[in-house]
Amino acid sequence: MIECKKFIFDVDATLVDTQAVIDNIWKKWCETVGVSYVDMSQYIHGRKIEETLHCISPSYACDVQVEKVKSIALSEMTKAQAISNAHSFISNLSPNAWGIATSGPKKVATTSLLASGFDLPKVMICAEDVLKGKPDPEPFIKAAHALNVTPSECVAFEDSPSGVLSAKRAGCFTVALLTSHREDELKDADLIVQGFEHLTVIKNHNGSYCLAAS
What we know:
Number of domains: 2
CATH superfamily of the largest domain: HAD superfamily/HAD-like
Number of strands: 11
Strand order of the largest sheet: 6-5-2-7-8-9
């Protein structure tokens, strides 16, 4: 059982089932520029748009292409749905006890969260809020500070190797969900579970929380 004060969640494939949606976003972008989706699919999860584009070719990491991807994403994210049992887990947390650390742009994250039925938390650290995206620890460090705690007082939830590394480097206890990657790819996490149905969270009298896995 782990005791903590706050929780920090990634969005895509962690709270919101966007796996197919994200794949479709990048497939549509690839069609517009003539890039092979197969060649770039390994870069699309857990990175800022700019970083994904740079992985394909530095020439694509420009404002025009970033805005093109954002435009496609805003349309596609309206189809997003919540990850199984994510709503139930979040319902056990006070509104000020959790926040977001995502590689996605704020408009896209907001669209997907609202489309899948979540209330927006007060703390949302998105692509625009950091100089260095995941796997750099900056997103989780900023999210923890915005929640008025240290990263070591937080439990972070992630689905991607870069996200797990980001949270671990920040100092968070890190839970990896097996929603988008294999278990061996998430080996750096402190805890790996199939989904929220295997987690129980209880609020203590002092305002902290206890998290247990089954």
